[in-house]
Design brief:
The chain is of the alpha+beta class. Helices cover 15% and strands 21% of the residues.
């Protein structure tokens, strides 16, 4: 006779637990506006009002910076290949929005409201993988339908497939002079997943089994967990990352608190170190370029990191001689997180040219 009250109490406690868990998840996935991007990214770059695109963000980086190429690496997740950035600000521009290249000012980022592990195009050639950031208004359909090459052919990054799981992929990138050969001898990777909202598709990248065969290693998926605060951290093969639902249309009219005029910014070809603005005192209104925040331990931060140093340029994807090769043996899946200079390299040859002409309909340029 006492069984029913006991069961009722158990059921009540269970309901309370479910409600609390649901409340926590709801809090972690609370809807935010673009204001979170405007506020959180300001210490690491400057916002400008760009014709046609409105508010766009320019990181405090020099001409060597390439989205999904500089200071980061790929990890396998249930959502596909995810770009794990070493930058403190990497939780946002590599998982929301689009990048585009301005011939004068370099790379700029347009905020977006769809989260994805990486908004890139993928291609494969015999022994190689390559990728490039998707441009504005470019979706999977355009990428597949027109054999999308990207707005700048030299923005593609490619490397031998056996280094796909390396924590230091920039050591093995092919020279830009080989991009044409790579593009002409490669084909698209058309494996797709649907975004968390179900409103967009993204390319998930090479198949896990293919990468395991190429690297000779077993790949353990990294589990992705919600973080309640901006940032990201990786520990014990679990990635905690801030990925809220972003409301594109907000009644409070979000806008950057601090902005710069394009005319006050040095062309990307003239930047070096902390020299970002034309007038030396201009940088005082924003964080200096030295505070652009590389998160070398993939730990979560909410404030700008100390000055970055890169004296040997080992982590810059394109700041290397045109003819270099990686190690002869593939790296293990799990590496020591401490960055060390790469050993001497041999010559790395670009992918071979095909013996026949590219398929009909393949164009060799993209919109500027």
């Amino acid at each position: 006779m006492n069984a029913y009250p006991r069961l009722s109490r158990i059921a009540f406690v269970f309901c309370i637990i479910v409600v609390l868990q649901t409340s926590v998840v709801s809090a972690q996935r609370a809807s935010v506006s673009f204001q979170v991007f405007y506020d959180q990214l300001s210490p690491y770059g400057t916002w400008v009002n760009y014709p046609s695109y409105g508010y766009v963000w320019m990181p405090f980086e020099d001409a060597n910076f390439v989205p999904y190429g500089s200071d980061g690496h790929w990890v396998w997740t249930d959502d596909g290949w995810l770009w794990l950035s070493d930058y403190d600000w990497g939780w946002a521009p590599f998982h929301y929005g689009r990048w585009f290249y301005d011939d004068t000012y370099g790379w700029l980022w347009i905020p977006g409201n769809e989260w994805g592990p990486a908004w890139v195009c993928w291609r494969t050639a015999p022994g190689y993988y390559g990728w490039v950031a998707l441009g504005p208004s470019v979706g999977v359909e355009l990428f597949f339908g027109y054999n999308y090459y990207g707005g700048r052919r030299d923005s593609w990054v490619y490397m031998p497939e056996r280094y796909m799981t390396s924590e230091h992929p920039s050591r093995y990138y092919g020279p830009r002079s080989g991009n044409d050969n790579f593009l002409k001898s490669s084909t698209v990777i058309n494996r797709t997943n649907t975004s968390r909202t179900g409103n967009a598709r993204y390319v998930s990248g090479p198949e896990r089994a293919q990468v395991e065969k190429a690297t000779g290693s077993t790949i353990s998926p990294v589990s992705v967990r919600e973080s309640s605060t901006p940032g990201h951290s990786l520990s014990n093969n679990q990635l905690s990352i801030y990925r809220p639902s972003v409301n594109r249309s907000s009644g409070d009219k979000p806008a950057p608190e601090k902005m710069s005029n394009l005319k006050d910014i040095k062309p990307v070809s003239q930047r070096s170190g902390n020299d970002f603005f034309k007038q030396p005192g201009r940088a005082s209104a924003q964080a200096s370029p030295s505070e652009s925040g590389r998160n070398t331990n993939n730990t979560q931060r909410s404030t700008p990191s100390p000055s970055r140093t890169n004296n040997n340029n080992t982590e810059r994807p394109q700041n290397q001689p045109e003819h270099t090769t990686p190690h002869t043996n593939p790296e293990p899946v799990h590496e020591n997180p401490v960055r060390t200079p790469p050993p001497p390299r041999q010559e790395m040859r670009p992918p071979p040219m095909p013996h026949n002409n590219p398929p009909a309909g393949m164009h060799h340029g993209g919109p500027r």
